[in-house]
Specification:
This protein is mostly beta strands and 485 residues long. The chain is built from one helix and 28 strands. Strand 19 and strand 20 form a beta hairpin.
Length: 485
């Protein structure tokens, strides 16, 4: 049967001014059938695509970890094509990639140039800024043209306080190392700073905080826009507390919102989370897309007997082939007692079918014995295989970053070695743990990889760090210490 749906014009994304609504000004468009790939799900109803703005309402502290990255292209059928706009942007591209603002010497709490700050590329913001208390979940994109190189980093931040919830902001750079950020919300299409806050719709899944998972640049005949659009997959937190996980005495540690780890006797609560989608024409002004779930999320938790019944976090989306998008996410398997990574597939980036858990807890004594989370999956152009960097959870709650490989990105994921590729270092700014990894391939003569990550230090202080591979060897990383000449 023919499926139909409704969308508003994407042009309103440049300067959205109204909150998410179930009754927007709309224009009809044709929605394709879902043949071949998921014949059993071809009777799904088409979701409404509702584009809206993001004025927010603070609430209580949220939780769990988020993050990740690469690039997609999608084709539903002959009539509806969703296409990835490669990170190598041509000079005449219509994408709004602006020159960054001049650096303000008071923009952040700059670390000293010592071994203590080795690898740190983004510290906490100045007092009073939207990201002065905590930062993390880096999603990094590199855009190249004949004339310039531009880097965008979407990340979450908090100001602190009982009513504070995580929000998403944007920083820009010309080299991926020195970043320019804003103290408050963005005001124009060349501004940087806070871009997306919690929803003010009482029924929504993301009223208690948002964290970025993946950002892609795509075009689609389904979305009526004059040029390509940014798609952001993100984690949205609700106010619903997960009592069973919060009081789980089988763990030797307690999770504190939203990302931090504290020993038993700590505080905080764990809230349910679900994956969401937002779109933008400039990477700064975003409109939420309402998914099929009644809360506006893309899909729901699993049933009580399924591994992902607690929450869904860190949606990372990768393009495999035409009509085949893959989302990797993490949850907590209450029956196994560990964090795990699962996946879902989609033809159009909006309707998703879960495929189950693909990686669980590691071997006894390993750095990831209590599970894996915050996956970042990339398709390796050299051999066509897939790489996954992930956050491993040890028995003491400490976080390190591990590596896994798969030939097809679906099954047979195998850990590479029994050791992390990056771990905390005593006496360094991130000596309490590292996680939320994000891989960027630096194609060129060196053919190296960059690994961006969230680091945790003493007293829960967080920052965003960067490590570089030993040439094309993705199994060995060292913290960045300066330009190599």
């Amino acid at each position: 049967m023919e499926l139909t749906a409704i969308t508003t014009t994407i042009n309103s994304l440049l300067f959205p001014t109204t909150p998410r609504s179930r009754n927007p000004i709309t224009t009809p468009f044709k929605r394709s059938n879902l043949p071949d790939l998921y014949p059993a799900y071809s009777s799904f109803l088409s979701p409404q695509i509702i584009l809206s703005s993001n004025p927010r309402n603070p609430h209580q502290n949220p939780v769990f970890l988020t993050h990740c990255s690469t690039k997609p292209t999608i084709s539903d059928d002959k009539d509806n094509v969703i296409e990835d706009q490669d990170s190598t942007i041509s000079p005449n591209s219509n994408l709004n990639i602006q020159n960054p603002q001049k650096l303000n010497s008071n923009q952040e709490k700059s670390p000293s140039n010592t071994s203590v700050s080795r690898g740190l590329v983004l510290d906490l913001g100045v007092d009073g800024s939207w990201d002065s208390f905590e930062i993390g979940s880096p999603v990094v994109k590199r855009f190249l043209s004949d004339e310039e190189e531009r880097w965008y980093m979407w990340y979450h931040g908090r100001t602190g306080g009982n009513l504070d919830t995580p929000s998403i902001g944007l920083a820009v750079s010309s080299n991926g190392i020195h970043w320019e950020r804003g103290k408050g919300g963005v005001q124009s299409s060349s501004d940087v700073g806070l871009i997306l806050k919690s929803s003010t719709d009482w029924w929504a899944f993301d009223t208690n905080g948002v964290m970025p998972g993946e950002t892609m640049v795509m075009s689609s005949s389904k979305i009526r826009a004059s040029n390509a659009v940014y798609w952001m997959y993100y984690t949205g937190f609700s106010n619903e507390k997960i009592e069973s996980l919060d009081n789980d005495n089988s763990l030797d540690f307690i999770l504190q919102n939203p990302d931090n780890i504290v020993k038993k006797g700590g505080y905080g609560k764990i809230c349910r989370s679900l994956p969401g989608l937002a779109m933008s024409q400039d990477g700064r002004h975003w409109a939420r897309i309402e998914g099929e779930h009644h809360s506006g999320s893309l899909f729901d938790l699993g049933s009580e007997t399924e591994w992902d019944s607690m929450f869904i976090a860190s949606p990372k989306v990768v393009f495999h082939s035409n009509g085949d998008l893959r989302m990797y996410y993490h949850s907590f398997d209450s029956q196994k007692g560990h964090f795990g990574i699962g996946m879902a597939r989609s033809r159009d980036g909006m309707k998703w079918v879960k495929l189950g858990k693909i990686i669980g807890g590691g071997l006894v004594g390993n750095f990831d014995e209590y599970g894996v989370m915050n996956p970042c999956v990339v398709k390796n152009k050299k051999d066509g295989g897939y790489l996954m960097v992930y956050e491993g959870v040890g028995v003491d709650g400490r976080r390190s970053i591990g590596l896994a490989r798969s030939s097809d990105g679906l099954k047979d994921w195998g850990r590479v070695g029994g050791e992390p590729i990056l771990e905390y270092v005593e006496g360094c700014w991130d000596d309490e743990g590292v996680g939320s990894p994000y891989l960027v391939h630096m194609e060129g003569e060196e053919d190296e990889w960059r690994l961006y990550y969230k680091g945790m230090g003493k007293n829960g202080r967080s920052g965003i760090g960067m490590a570089v591979s030993d040439g094309k060897d993705v199994e060995n990383f060292r913290r960045f210490t300066g330009f190599y000449v």
